[in-house]
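Self-study notes.
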Amino acid sequence: MAPELPPLLPPVGVFDQAEFPDALESEIPDIPPSPVIISHAPPAVARSVRRGCWLVNFRPTGTPLVSYDGTIRVEVSAGGRTASGDLYQRQIVILPGGTSTLGPGPNPAHGIPIQPLNRYRYYLSITRILEHSTPGNSFELGFQRWRYILPTPANRNGSWVNEGPFSATMTWITAPAAYPSAGDYLEGNLRNNLGVIVGRLKMGWVSWYYRKASIEIDTVQGSERPTGNGAGEAWRTVGIKMGWDLTEILSQTNVTNPSGAGWSNGELHASMLQWRNSSNLDIEWRYHLLAVHLLDFTERGVMYDTGGTDSNKVAREGAGLSSHWMIPPSGWGRVNGKRWGGEAAPYFRSAVHELGHAFGLLHNLNNQYFMDTSNLIAGAGEVTPPKFPDNIRWNFADIDLRRLRHWSDIFVRPGGVPFGAASETSPIISPPDVEVEVPGVRLEVEPLRPELPLGAPVRINIRLTNVSSDTPLRVPKDLSLKSRFVCGYVTGVSGTPRTFSPVVITDDNSMRDLAKGHSVTASLTLLRGAEGALFPTSGVSEITVKINWPIGEAEAAVVGKTTVMVTGAYTSEHAVAAHKVLATPDVHAVLIFGGDHLEEGIEAIRTALNDDTLRPHFAAIEAKRCARRFMSREPDIETARRLLDDYVVRTDVEAAQLRKAFEDAGAGEDRMPRSIRPNGS
């Protein structure tokens, strides 16, 4: 179970420009609002809870070395106020002589605090707050307090425990020194559901914004910096609409092109680690955007850093953007046939879209807002004016604004939960009744090998077929784990489901018309998911694959299942190799990214290759990595050939990828091993 967002009071939208009309021309002023004078006599001042970020402290009773600091975010709309909060445990300092004391709390003069991720403890879903104004000097604050259990290797998302309702009578008093507004400060005793006082709660206003972050932009030579749409929209204005204080950091412009014209996901990640400025995510939320000429596996943009299973163990930190992708000659409105980076509006929109994924947002399609995809927005402009890119809506959709403002910190901050975990664990955001079954569509799931040894990746083939409808059905064109449409879970002998979801999110979720009797096929290689290894023990495991896609305001859903039998260790060498693979998260990252920079993962794969039992199952993965150019390393075709000379377990998709890698390296069919030739010819 996970925390629900606070109740929503419509409408959700941008900051009220009437309250500070110069917000788009200058920074939002930190000026306290004037008191409201009630018209009847005698005159009285009506107080209200100010919009923005409030610095919060909670000190439990009877525990002098325990204190929690955080924020409460208060959003104001015509219907009242929506609020949420997060608390982090303050560090304990050991003084000379061994005496322990509480460390200092955040300084209110510094505005919105950024605190260490590993100190995160609570999410506050605020259920009661002063909605408008009061002539009194206090109000009742109520919330559900959700305790966060930090992630473990077996559960990378962490877990939540609802500790029940709490309430406090919050009273206005003069703010201590360093707070920017002396009149926006409150304190009160916190009570549990039995009415027992459990501590003291303090909150003082520090910023008009709800959150703050920075975006570092690096480019290769010749790629444009995505800094705005050329018509007034820029990162700062996007931040104002989000309610985030976004700082743009324009960094390197001469990032070295590592190999060929296209960049792999592994090269993007390695370059982020090499070129970005030094940053500490415990004191700054910094996201990284790298603009390159072309991307290998997608056209316009990619958020490649989804899971924190890579060498620096940080989820949702980086995204890549293609500046030299050539727009098709038709179907793209005013920018037909032009270069992507040369068109400021769609280029900048694509950058915001990919950073939206880094903020934890999924695709939100067919509405022309930021989390829609460029191809769908362009297609909509071909049907209903105006043409693309004039039909772009320069904001996030209301539901996404709500997430950005009121999700838990760990759902949005870089290094928090893996991509997709926030959406999957917020049932109030994605209620199950939006899903509808599509009659006449069948999803078949078949394992490539029904039985396989412990430690081996599990390869499955999936087929989506229109089995009954005489009218072509609109379905996803791509069913790989690079699309947003596919997810699932594995249930092993323990009975606990282990989830898997897309590992690389691109700005391309094309649909196609599927005629009766026709199918869309794909192959998935399953190894790890959000909870760790998907097949950590021997025994029968059931694999459930789910495909979702939008149909109007609802979501189509179709499910398919299969089983595999994982056998135990055959030899002591096999046991050692399987242990190494299952205990090394970077093995999964090598499978996704390839490259040479994930040394722990490569070492574990080589251990598997040295074991006779696991070698056939990892040979294609390592051959693909070797056969592709990475940074300054040329393709190692000879090593790839040796790996593929023996018996190899691989899907037809993997064979096609290997053939392309050989062709790109200049190796003709005569140099290709028989194991990857079409039909084994």
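Second protein, same conventions, sequence then structure:
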Amino acid sequence: MELGLAGVIQMLWNSSVPYWSSGDWNGQYQYFSSVPVMAARHLFDFTFVDDGREVSFAYHLRNGTDDVYSFLDVSGQRKVLLWQESTQEWITIFRHPELRCDVHAACGPFAVCDDNAASPSPCSCLRGFSMAAPGDWELGDRTAGCKRDVPLDCGGGGGNGSAAGPADRFYAVAAVRLPYDPRSVGGPAVTSAAECEQACLSTCSCSAYSFGTGGCSVWHGGLINVRHMQPADAAAGSGEVLHLRLAAKEFQTRKKLRGMVIGGAIAIGIVALGVSVLVLLLMVMARRNRRHRSHCDGGLIAFRYRDLQRATGDFSDKIGAGGFGSVFKGSLNTSTIIAVKRLYGSYQAEKQFRAEVGSIGILQHTNLVKMVGFCCERDRRLLVYEHMPNLSLDAHLFRSSDAAAALSWGTRYRVALGVARGLAYLHESCRDCVIHCDVKPQNILLDGSFCPKIADFGMAKLMARDLSRVLTTARGTVGYLAPEWISGMPVTPKVDVYAYGMVLLEIVSGRMNSEEECGCGGGGEDDDEVVYFPVLVARKLVEGDVMSLVDRRLGGDAVVEEVERACKVACWCIQDNEADRPAMGKVVQMLEGLVQVDMPPTPRLLAAIAGRSHSACT
């Protein structure tokens, strides 16, 4: 995308072919002529400068609290999304170009684009062609286009030889907009479609021709930007006819197939009555065996979309939401309650789907949420888990001030120990070390007995045992990110240890780790200091006053030895240097009281934060 000296924004394919233009700037009403929606100015204020020396365009959010996401999609469209708090999902505000088929080479060579296609993708291969890269198509990238099923008889499918193969023929594709980059042939000398066809056959590289009021046009190499006309345009007869060059075998094969289909249909009709009962019985037996294997051997169930739609009441009972999906409550039968995560956004949904199925889908531990199955139909990606009736840990720590609803100290300590055991299993007991990368109370679910289950493995990374660290971008949640991850260094399982330490502080205190206390103006020696909560924990440990850190809703009803042990372990887990943090297996032993826990030093980074906070208060 570039802003030209003429003051017009253009989107370019391969930095050379423009496929969308903003139009001229309307200074009176403050919008580009091709983007009239700008005039409403619901989200942005716009600034356009063209003073003869420079041309610039800028936009700013009118409401600084709005969450807006602007990006260039893999389809070639620039999209602007707005986070809708009420529905907990991203909604599209506008996109350019509006139609996907307006993007240059959106479907790649030898594919046809149709904005009215019923499927999520507007692209389909022309007759005689199939997808060149099926995996990329599934991820939304169709730029590789399609490849021939049967090579041309002339030159083996596209050489530059001059001798025409006698067996190549043409298939008429009607009501289309002709491909990009046509070449005119013959001028007035070519006066008929037959002559135009012969002109194409005379060159092996010729892929198609069209003959109309504009004369004879031919195309060499891959055909791009072939597009079905809109219904209204097609009805008005404004579409062209493209004659696509195919090998003669392509026509012969289809003729034979047609005969075989007719013969096969007759044969099937004769034996169908006798076979149908047997097939039905086999299907019932196979389904029973499949269910038996899935439930008895711990395998995942591949659900059909319509079954999950029925189980969730058409996704009517929403119980949670995240950045790229929503969670719905459902029931497989009268006794099995499930939670169905429905993923949105083709690329991110596919990444999260593969990450979760590839990690938690093959793991079994009492402190990991159990994946029941999944659904992978067309572009739909859904994950099915066991339902957790007591919601997530953050609902009990942060969302209620009711002392009666607060988790008891015994329950809190069991939750802390269970989460530590789950992480120790991921880090130390799996074939490949699994780094969760997003440990936080929102991703710790509680079952009917308040047993903790670690969930949401959409960011998880697998690290082979012969590696010491893995490179990944910082993607977790602010407040739980280890210092080395923020600085862009390769990560180890110790990033989970750091996040666990922060969670452990929150379990003890019932408050978020990012909270501060400020006693400005109180008159005491320390009253004018803003204290970052983890620093306060380290200070209270030294002073021997750990009970003041316990959630006030408990009224002091906690075991002081366990509180002190938990606070020490948490402070060891959040040390600046990852080498100073204990492994999760050691954390479990500490919390179980099997090893002595020494007094931890105050992390230098947290001390620096506390120093800056003190300066800000004074």
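Instructor comment on the second fold: Residues 157-165, 291-298, 519-528, 613-618 have pLDDT under 50 and may be disordered.
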